[in-house]
Amino acid sequence: MKKKITLKDILILQAVIAIYTLSTVMAKLASGHPTLSLNFFLFYGAELVILAIYALLWQQMIKKFELSIAYTNRAMALLWSLIWAAVIFHDKITLKNIIGVALVITGTIIVNGGQQKEELCDEA
């Protein structure tokens, strides 16, 4: 059984997921340059570095969290991707985008809340 999960742990998990989504930002930036150009390789290289860092951090996260909880929280990558799209690429956020992300966040909260209730029941 994994030890008790704190808000700090959830925030660290979200930071790891945000790092993961930055790899897609690098891929999109690379796609804006001619294939085989220096900038193309630099952005794809940055993507690989980010994915390597993420892989190491993710291994630490699945030591801390139940696997079902960790993977459920990965769905929050949608939120981070939406944030990066708006902030970095100035994409327009639609009502459908917001509703979709809100549903994902709600589902993640329900699953995380269910895990905490299970832990309370196990302790009793």
TrEMBL record:
Keyword list, A-Z: Membrane, Transmembrane, Transmembrane helix
Keyword Transmembrane set for record: yes
Positions of transmembrane segments: 37-57, 69-89, 95-114
Chain coiled-coil ranges: none
Protein name in UniProt: Transporter
Protein's organism: Eisenbergiella massiliensis
Organism ancestry: Bacteria, Bacillati, Bacillota, Clostridia, Lachnospirales
